[in-house]
Amino acid sequence: MSSANVAFRKERKHSALAVAAVSTLTACDELDSVPRGNAGSAPLTTDLGNRIRQGERTAAHIATIKAKIRHELPPHVFRRCPARALTALVLGAAIAALTAVLLTARLPGFSSLVLSVVLGGLYGSLFFLGHEAGHGSVVRQWHLQDALMGIAFLIFLLPPTLWRVWHNRVHHVHTNLPDYDPDNFGWLAAYRRLRSIRVVAAFTPGSGRWISLLYLPTWFTVHTQLVLWFQSRRCRGFESLNRPRAATESLVMVGFWVWLAMQLGPWSSLLVIVLPMMVANTIIMSYIVTNHLLRPVVDDPDPLATSMSVTTHPWMDLIHFNFSHHVEHHFFPAMSPRYAPLVRAKLRQYAGDSFLAPPHLRALRAVFRTPRIHGEHGVLVDPVSGRSIRFADLDSALVAVTGARPRDPRGGEP
Ligand SMILES: [Zn+2]
């Protein structure tokens, strides 16, 4: 019996939550039942499609760009920035202080709600520093990295032990490779075969359903639990995950918030837990949905094909620590995002229109206007309405709003 059939039988036994959980496994489970090289087998006409078909050339192309950028940037750019740990601690202290104010000051309801949103904003900013710490660009010691991540990820119920494997070893190394990366929504064949996929598809941006509006405020926390309890058992690359430790960390986090909520009561819990959690989710997901969902799945790693940056307001870059520079981050994950703008300038120089950084709001609008299921022949498709968009067309539209210079006729080779 194929692994896909086993997954199907197990899926039928699960509860509604498990149904949703298994559905997101499909990107990992279904690869064996779908012809490999789906995105590359179709007669794509763009350079992007050509590069996906020619995996070896792509790898050489990426390696050349990476080496050239590393050579041209000053050495200190690639060193750790321990001062970021102080920034994280200041943010943590601000969160603690604001929480205390919300719990002790007798503020009017509206003022409390505004401060609660600000609290969520602080949690969102802190997440980005936790992400840096997890890549080792802040401090070298693992226990300090874990401590920083533990504080930064607490509101998301995200165990640092899971994050190291999920994000660092699986997502970064195998971005948009369907049998590894849990962060995409899989193939049309899987959608048609598994009811569970159809449940989640309605929730995703681009489905056209009202419920998809809940995606940004909740998905990162929900997805974390799905990866922890379900996807990490099916996707490749999670073999090294210390499950007992990750589960314990998550349960401790959940226990902490449940205990706190029981002490505080409904209104205070809404102000210092629920609303900040949803605001923080919205902030980080407003970047995360633009990172890879508009990009094709591939057979071989290629950060230019599978990742996308956005151009956001300078104040947003300041308070979100340049998380908008995502392709740059995939080129140099261990480099402090403080220097990501330098990499962006080099990518514009050497990658031409293969480097995408459309305006942030335009990218978000594109995510909510395009389907999430990967069909054959290089398309995203909505199986309910039949609506589809070719990556070739999507790519052209994103290049147009990115404002990249015309592509080098030799394919952007430096
Ligand atoms: Zn990362």
Structure description:
This protein is an all-alpha fold and 414 residues long. The N terminus and C terminus are likely disordered. A 3-stranded antiparallel beta sheet has the order 1-2-3. The protein binds zinc ion. Zinc ion binds next to loops.
Q: What order do the strands of the largest sheet run in, or round the barrel if closed?
A: 1-2-3
Give the overall shape: globular
- Count of strand segments: 3
Approximately what portion of the residues adopt beta-strand conformation? under 5%
Secondary structure category:
mainly alpha
Segments where pLDDT lies below 50 for 5+ residues? Answer: 1-56, 405-414
Q: Tell me about the biggest sheet?
A: 3 strands, antiparallel
Gyration radius, to the nearest Å?
21 Å
Which hetero ligands occur in this complex?
Answer: zinc ion
Share of helix among residues?
Answer: 55-70%
pLDDT averaged over residues: 83
Give me the strand/helix succession: HHHHHHHHHHHHHHHHHHHHEEEH
Distance between the termini: 49 Å
The DSSP helix count reads: 21
